[in-house]
Structures are given as C-alpha cells and as structure tokens.
Amino acid sequence: MPQDALVIIPTYNELENLEPITSAVLDSLPRADVLIVDDNSPDGTGEKAAALAARNPRVHVLHREAKQGLGRAYLAGFDWALARPYRFIFEMDADFSHDPKRLPALIEAAEQGADLVLGSRYVQGGGTVNWGFSRQAISQCGSLYARTILGIPVRDLTGGFKCFRREVLEGIDLKTVQSVGYAFQVELTYRAIQRGFKVREIPILFEDRRVGQSKMSRKIFFEAATMVWKLRFAKK
C-alpha cells in the first residue's frame, strides 16, 4: 500500500540525532515516509542521510547547497512533497524536542476534519520539559504577542510540530512566503486561517534537545517580532 504521509525533518549539524529520530518516526507512523532536508551540514549529516536513504525506501533526502534558514528548508521540502501524492505532510524537529510518538495523534486529528493540526505546548495537557522560567516566559509571551497582533485564537503560534493536509499547502501560495526563521511557523498558520482552513491544536510535551546546539539567534528573534506586523497589515 503506498504511503500517504510524509514527515519532513530539516537538518543542520544533526549527525548524532539523525538515525535515532528517523527510526523513531518510521516506527511510530508506519504509513509515513521521511524526507530529510539537509543544508550542507559540515558535520556529515547529509552523508549520513544519504546512507539511510540507500538502506530504506521510506527514507528520502534533499541536499541543499547552503544554510538558508528553517523556512527555506521547509519550502523546499513542501515542493518535493507536493510533486508526489502524499495526503498529509508533517513538520518536525530532528532533535527529539518533538516526540515521534505523537505523530499518530496529529494525523488522527487531521482525519477527523482538521486541515492543519498543531502540536501545542499551551493548550490543556501540553507543556515543556527541561525549560527554565525565563525561556518559558519568552516563548509564551512570544505566542501571546503574535496572537494579539494577528487577532487569531491559536495559543501556540511559534511551534514547529505540524500536520498539513496537502490542500492547505496547495492553497496558501508558498511562493510568496516571506519568513526565513521561526516566524515562518507563525506565517503559515496565519495564512491557513486567512484562507478559511480549519486549525486544531492538540497537546504535546516539548522537551529540550537531547544533543547538539539550538539554532535560535537574535536575528531570528527580531524577524519573528517584526514579521507579525507585516502579516497584520499585508493586503489580503
């Protein structure tokens, strides 16, 4: 039976996490393939991804020439996915901050009628693990800031654990997406809501990365802070 779901995992220097996260995803969602989108990682992640793909027909790899931001990696992955007959397309991190065991819950919500399903830290039953008070405050205030400016009820706008029906990605004009960093997550959800797609949040526990370094930077934070205003006043 052909696979009807694709889990896109962007990578940059995720060599230690790559094989465990890929195996966990394949085990948790047997109906899914995995697409690793590697931004020319200098630690050998891309080569490891190619080796995994050579051994398993459910694993695919998209090699990009340089690091261009999370948003550009996902857009490349979406283009790859939409050229194939996948019905459900996921975003998730490579570092186990998103638990692969929650993948079935996300796709179940989509099959029950949601067009875009968000793994949410800030609905009842959700939360974070191994986060200090300041990081929790920054994250929750960031989501509140974006939610207030954009005037939408989504509680976790900055999260990156998502399941899209392919119709959503086909309908939100991906070629005009502006964001590169974490504002990308806000922008896609906002565009989906603007176009009348049904968004549902389900609870997840977000655990701080097991190994490697966070990709967050001041530049990414500033982009997220300013992009919501651009979205708010953009022409519909």
Explain this structure to me?
By secondary structure, the chain is an alpha/beta fold. The protein has a single domain, classed as Alpha-Beta Complex (Spore Coat Polysaccharide Biosynthesis Protein SpsA, Chain A). Helices cover about 40% and strands about 20% of the residues. It contains eight helices and nine strands. It has helices at about 15-30, 45-55, 70-80, 105-110, 135-150, 165-170, 185-195, 220-235, and strands spanning about 5-10, 30-40, 60-65, 90, 115-120, 125-130, 160-165, 200-205, 205. It has a seven-stranded mixed beta sheet, with helices on both faces. The longest helix has 18 residues, at about 135-150.
List the helices and strands and how they pair.
Layout: E1 5-11, H1 15-28, E2 32-38, H2 45-55, E3 59-63, H3 70-82, E4 88-91, H4 103-111, E5 116-120, E6 127-129, H5 133-150, E7 162-165, H6 166-171, H7 183-194, E8 199-203, E9 205-207, H8 218-233
Parallel strand pairs: 1-2, 1-4, 2-3, 5-8, 6-9
Antiparallel strand pairs: 4-7, 5-7
Helix pairs in contact: 1-2, 5-8, 7-8
Oligomer: single chain
**Radius of gyration, CA atoms, in whole angstroms:** 17 Å
* Overall spatial form: globular
Counting H and I runs of at least 4 residues, what is the number of helices?
A: 8
